[in-house]
Structure formats: C-alpha cells, structure tokens
Amino acid sequence: MAESVPVAHEAHPHHGEMSFWSKYVFSTDHKIIAMQYMFTGMFMGLIGGFFAYAFRMQLAFPGVPVPGYGLVGPNAYNALVTNHGTIMIFWVAMPVLIAAFGNYLIPLMLGCDDMVFPRLNRLSYQIFLLSAIVLLISFFVPGGAFGGAWTAYPPLSAKAQYNLTPYGSSIWLVAVALEFVAFLLGGINFITTAMNSRAPGMKMYDVPIVVWMIVIASILFMASVGPLIAGAVMLFMDQNIGTAFFDPARGGDPVLWQHLFWFFGHPEVYVVLLPAIGIVADVITVFARKKLFAYRTVLYTAFGTGVLSFTVWAHHQFVAGIDPRMANVFTITTLLISVPIAEMLFVYIATLYGGSISLTTPMLWALAFIAEFLIGGVTGIFLGASGSDIYFHDTYFVLAHFHYTFFPIAIIGAFAGITYWFPKMFGRMLDETLGKIHFWGTIIPFNLVFIPLFVLGMAGQHRRIYNFQNFPDLAHPWMQDLRVLATVSLCVMLAFQFVFFFNFIKSLRSGKKAGDNPWKANTLEWTAPSPPPHGNFAELPTVYRGPYEYGTPGRDKDYWPQNEPA
Amino acid sequence: MIERYVTSASTFSGDIDFVITLIFVLVGFWFLVSEGIFFWLIFRFRKKDGQASEYITGEKKSEKRWITIPHLLVLVCDVFIVVAAVRVWYNVKQDLPPAQQTVRAIAQQWAWTFVHPGPDGKIDTADDIRSVDELHLQVDTLYHYKLEARDVLHSFSVPVFRLKQDAIPGRVITGWFEPTKTGEYDVQCTEIRGIGHGIMGARVFIETPEQHMAWMNRNSPGSVAAVEATTPVVLAATTPRVEE
C-alpha cells in the first residue's frame, strides 16, 4: 500500500493540455470520473423515473395506454417494477452517492492530488458503464427484460418456463454482477486513498464525516457482496447450464438464495444511507455555522450500524418459511439497529441548537433529509417486529417505508450534495430561486405519493400486482382514488425535475462566478480553485484542525479553514 | 387501527392489531417529539444580523446527555415492542394448537387449489372436496393449513386473518388459524410469481355450520353438481402452466 502513492503521481506526471478523449472519456482524473458517474447515474435516474411513471399510470388507470409508453401488460408491468428497483438502487443511488461523491470529494477533502489507483478508478467506471448498457440491452431481447422483482427469488428467476424471460433474466444477472465488480474496484480505491493519502497533519478525527461515511460504506459493501456474487454465479448456472442449486426437486433450496441475497441486501441499505447521512453532516454544519455535535459519537454510531447491519437480514424472511424461532432473534437485532440510527439523527438535530441557520437550497435539502428519513425510520419498526410484520410483509406499507428511506437517501441526499458542491464542481453558483422551486416541487409531491401508499398498505394492498380489479377487497373506489392521487403526485414531481435540469444548464453557462469558497466552509476542497484543475491544489495543503470549527470563540471570522495555520 | 380498513376475522387478528397500535403509539410519540424539536430549532435559530452561532462540541458529559438519555429511552421502547411482537409471533407461528379440521392449500402459477375434508371430517380420504380459488371454512373452528407450492414461491395471505405464509416447492408448511366471523374475503398471493401474479385472486368463504354443511353436500365427490362445478375450472387453471 505504501508504494501506491508514487504510482498516483506516475499516472499523470504532467498536468498539461490533453485531447478531448483523454481529458473527458479516458481520463484518470478523479473529478472527471466523478462527473462520469454522476451524469450516468442521472441518466439512469431518468429511465428509472420513467418506469415508475409507466407502472404508476397503469395502477391509477388500469388498461388505458400510458402516454409515451403504450399499454402496460402484466409481463411489461413486472419488468418495469423490477428494473425500476434495480436501476434506482444499483445504477442511481450507488453511482451518485458513493462513486460520484466518493471520487470527487475524497482526494479534495483529504488534500491530495488524485486517488491512489487512478487507472483502477477509470476501469471501475468503464465496467460500470458496460453494466448499465448490458442492463438496458435486456429490454430489447426476445421475451423482454427480467420481471421477477429486484430480489430475483428462485425458482421464478431460475427457470425460463416460470418467468418467460429466457434471456432477460440472465442478462439482468450479468449486469448486476458487473456493477458489483465496478464498485469493488472503486471501494478498494476509496479505502486505500483515505488510509494513505491524507494531507500532512490530518488525523483520523480530522477527516470530514462524509469521507468517513463513504469509506465505511465501501467496507460494508466489500464485506457483504461476496455471498451474493456466489449466489449470482449459482443462479446463473441454474438458469443456463441446468444445475440445481435452488431447485428443490433436485436437492436444491430456494430459501438459500434469500439468505445470500439479504445478507448483502440489508447492509446495502446502509451502504447508500451512510454517504447520504455524511453529506447532510457537512451541509448542516456549514449552513448552521455550527460545530458538529459529538463528532466521535457520529463515527461510533456509523460503525455500530455497520456491524449490526450484518445481523438483521432475516427480517426480510420472517414469513418465508424459515424456522419461526429465528424470527425472535432477528426481531431483537433489527430493533437494536434503531438505536444508533436514532442517535445519529438526534446528533444532527442537536447540531442545530445555537446555530445561525440560513435556509439556502442545499440546507433545505439536508434538513428535508432529516425530516423525511425520520418517517422512513419509525415505520421500519412495524416491519422489524415479527408480530406486526406478519400483516405488513409484502404490502404497500413496506413499499412506502423503504421509499421514505431510499428517496431521502438517493434523491434528497444527492440533491443536497449536488447543490452544495456545484460551485466547486463547475465554478458557478446555482440559481437559488429556481433551486427552491425545484425543492418544494419535489418534496410536497413526494409526500403525496407515499402517504396514500402507507394507507393502502394498512388496508392490505399487496405489492407487485398490475391490476387490483381482481381483488374485490382492494377494488373499493376510495382505494382507487388514493392510487390516482399517488400517480398524479408522481407526475407532478417528475415534471418539477425539469426545473432542476434547466437550472443546472443555465447556471453552468451564466451562473454567478463562485470563487474558491462561496459558502465560507472549512474543509480542504474549498481551498482549491473552482473548478479545481487536474492535480487539484497548486500547493498541497497542511492540516491544523478538524473540519467543523465554526463559531470558534475569540475569532472575528465564524469559520476556521482546516489548512489555516493557528 | 387496522380494523378501520380490514375486518378482523380470526382469533389472533386482534393481537396483531394490538402490536401495530402499540408500535404506532410509541414511535408516534418519538416522531412527534423529534420533528417538533427539529422544526422549533430551525425557527428559533434562524440567522439574525449580529448574532453569532454558539460553539458547542457535544463532547462534554453535560452536553452529551441530551442525546444519551433519549437514546436509552428509545432502547426501553424497543424492549416493549420486542416483548409484544415476540409474544404474538409465538402464538401465531411457533405454537400449533390441536386442529379440529385440516385443509390443504396448493399454490401454482396462477391458481390456488384448496383441499377440504369431506363429510368424514378427515383430509386425504376419498370424500375430499377440491376447489380452485375458493376456500370454504366453518366459523369458530380451529384449522390447520398444509401449504404446498408446485412450481415457484407463492405466499398464502388472508388479510382478514392477519395471516401470511410463503409456500415453497418441495416443502409442506403447517400453520393454523381460527375464523371468528362469517363472510367472504380475499385470499392474496403476496410473493411475485410471474406473468399471472396480478390476475389471480382467491376468495375465502367463512360459513356457519349449516351453510358449511350445505356447501359440503352440494360439492361432495358423489354429487353430480360437484363434478360439473369443479371439473372445467380445474382444467382452465392448469392449462396456462407449461410442465417440464
């Protein structure tokens, strides 16, 4: 590991003029790779959002052709739902939160010139891009895209005679496996860089929370993904060469897949949660002009959450046919994990006390994260407790619950980060008025999409059904009205995203020049020029203090950059 | 809370509703307190000219107790919830009270086949009554269900009973319920199972002893009506399946 730092310098010994291709396409610059991840993630987000629009329209207006898509049949419905989930988690949340922010922020916040393994970094993005293309190809093969839910439970996912997507299901599996390879490469890079390339003087407790969180998330990902990759190989062989790992008729066991999947799948929730919660820490401290309340506690709760997250997976399987005694153990571990997460949110709320809060667009997003994620957190208790999960399992209550966690993570958290670091990334300020229109136009409809779905879930509406008219107890007019409300709200929310893209492009061309440090923040990325050149800093910074020294008594400025000598 | 939306029709549905209400009250309290303090802080500490922010590290004991005390209280609430949830879970899923009747539920893409005991009251005998997508039960009778799947995973869910159990090919899973209210309700399949997943809904008919007897007489394998009623349905349900 020690030799790896010189390698980073070798990879780009001179930071001179480069051709378009080597500068933007085959670049090893961490900032360009971050942009590649971010724009690919946004593009996939548009596709995932379009899928949601198509299947929500079918639920609100069953059997009516959807404008811009056409008629949604049962197989198309399953494929849309499956790929909406897969895309939003693996091709939006992960690339934007971990890869884009990780790549952009880690070297800049640690005060070094690039990642430790820049060429590995480039390879990681290229494999990721390939995985996205492979996934999209599955929509154009005979039989169409995979429709067995993002959890891909066998035997449905294992045999074409059951799922009727002979090619789609294998292509889906290959795409997911490639995505894992990309993030394994990226994760190695993040961890190694954070351990080895910190600026002189930067101790472990001087590292900004967002960097810590991305590193912890990478460790969680690397430790949990192994069993699922093994499972994916077994499932691929079951699909294509007739093995029977998951086929009960020939000695296999379909429940094995569920364990392998959720052993990864539950830590994965925290893999995307932690970077978002890290972004929020950095944003609220800057705009409340406050030192983060109990920095070390935040770190310990993050580690605690990470360790506990490996012991909760079977709460997804309470009624799946596991030994019912196991549910008692997993109920306890699952409810225990509410403690560090609650503590983390308490810390953030406590940070606001005594602050001087300006409600800029990034701050609004960060505060919205706390307010909305709390709903996702408390509704999780109903599902983690075995007794109530018997009723709620696989209903819309579950769906609304995890959208109240994933939406704050992948959308609200990401917008907090993008609006906060946009001036650094592109050297210009985003328009605040448009930013606030976009914020309220996203947050209000978001709640109007998912609160009705909580109610439908309590009324027993189960998931992954393309038309509820076949269930008399679910076909009441008031229930249909709630489905229409959710769908209309979704359309409004999606429409407001164009305000963001308009703001993005307008500000990129004609936004106010940002200067190096428009938010008066402490962390090292704000000492580099905006946007930072290849190599980041004219002179590599030295660190004298922690990242959250705001409002320090006895100083005329209310901030104290990490690199400013005492 | 749940009875407002879905009838409560088994001996344990009220217990499950109680756990849900308990959690609702406990987490609802924390939710309101947290959001209340959160919004109050935002309004209270809005930026004002000439007023600097305070410097609070949160590392001192006197400061830290503002989060350690709530966090211990959360832990106490968790204990209450665990105890309530595990008690109900034990009753519904771990314990198996002796059966008065047994029914078999067989899931396949995309239909439920229910096997009811005939007039002899026993299952797996010549007078069994088979039906597709219709489960007929007698009220106030403790049933064991034996759950099987022919092809992929399915899930046997009866919202009015608050009961849900996945069916796994190659296994027979036994559980119990006791209906307490007559009527006709949905049986759902809550595990995604391919193209026909959204098309199939079954119904459960909870009948008084007299109604149940009448249904049994109409449908016993000997009676002409039964043959006419069930045969075409069984064929229709099995045709879309592609067997190996």
Descriptors:
heterodimer; A: 566 residues; mainly alpha; Cytochrome C Oxidase, Chain A; disordered N terminus; B: 244 residues; alpha+beta; Helix Hairpins; Immunoglobulin-like; 5-stranded mixed beta sheet; 38% helix; 24% strand
CATH domain fold name of the largest domain in chain B: Immunoglobulin-like
Low-confidence spans of chain A:
1-14
Largest sheet, spatial ordering of strands of chain B:
3-2-1-5-8
Specify Rg of chain B, calculated over alpha carbons.
Answer: 26 Å
Let me know the CATH homologous superfamily of the largest domain in chain B.
Cupredoxins -  blue copper proteins
Mean pLDDT of chain B: 88
CATH topology-level name of chain A: Cytochrome C Oxidase, Chain A
CATH homologous superfamily of chain A - what is it?
Cytochrome c oxidase-like, subunit I domain
Q: Helix count of chain B, per DSSP? A: 4
Q: How many beta strands in the DSSP annotation of chain B?
A: 10
Strand fraction of chain B equals: 15-25%
Summing up helix and strand content along with how strands pair, one would put the structural category of chain A as mainly alpha
Q: Can you tell me about this structure?
A:
The complex is a heterodimer of chains A (566) and B (244). In chain A, 65% of the residues lie in helices and 0% in strands. In chain A, helix 3 runs antiparallel to helix 4 (74-110) and helix 4 (74-110) packs antiparallel against helix 8 (209-240). Chain A has a single domain (33-527), classed as Cytochrome C Oxidase, Chain A. Chain A has helices at 4-11, 20-25, 30-60, 74-110, 118-137, 160-163, 168-196, 209-240, 254-288, 295-308, 324-336, 338-352, 361-384, 386-392, 396-426, 432-458, 477-510. Chain A has 566 residues and is mainly alpha-helical. Chain A is globular and about 70 Å long. The two termini of chain A are 32 Å apart. Chain B has 244 residues and is of the alpha+beta class. Chain B folds into two domains: 2-94, Helix Hairpins (Orthogonal Bundle); 101-238, Immunoglobulin-like. Chain B has helices at 13-44, 61-94, 209-219, 224-238, and strands at 101-108, 111-116, 129-132, 134-138, 143-149, 154-158, 163-167, 173-177, 183-189, 202-207. In chain B, strands 3-2-1-5-8 form a five-stranded mixed beta sheet, with helices on one face. In chain B, a hairpin with a 4-residue loop joins strand 6 (154-158) and strand 7 (163-167). In chain B, helix 1 (13-44) runs antiparallel to helix 2. Chain B is elongated. Classes of the chains: A mainly alpha (566), B alpha+beta (244). Chains A and B meet through helix 4, helix 6, helix 9, helix 10 and helix 11 of A and helix 1, helix 2, strand 7 and strand 9 of B.
